[in-house]
Protein: Large ribosomal subunit protein uL22
Amino acid sequence: MASWNYPQLNLDELKIAKAVIRDVPASIRDLYNVCKAIRGMYLNDAKDFLNRVLEEKEALPFWRYNKGASHKANISAKWKIKAGRYPKKAIRQVLKLLENAEANATNKGLDVDKLIIRHIAAHKGITLERYMPRAFGRATAKYRRTSNVEVILEEVE
Structure:
């Protein structure tokens, strides 16, 4: 079993809340762009933004892995990028993670309105190998790739 730890950011342990979700059945490429978009936002602003993307009112900018992503007219000018998509599967998983981190912060006694996303990152998870039967007794490998996402929220004044 591989060892894993949160990154050492020299933050006050009394003012942060952590959460992690493992083996997410979503693309690491989509999760990377979702994490990059909401990093540094206030928690409530990030959840509102992700809900707007889920409803396709605003597109999520794709900085990396954007080959074939068309330009979207509803990307905010603050991103300074035009390529975007609506990665709904990845956004649902990140929203679930943010809800979990918010519950951890509430349990710790932190003010939810002052929480900022200090760190969020997506990493490759395990790859499950399955086999799909083919003609003449052969089989083709079919891979189910997973991802891990971690978040650290910090209470700011």
Q: What stands out?
A: The chain has one domain: 15-155. The chain has a mean pLDDT of 93. The radius of gyration is 18 Å. The domain at 15-155 is CATH 3.90.470.10 (Ribosomal Protein L22; Chain A).
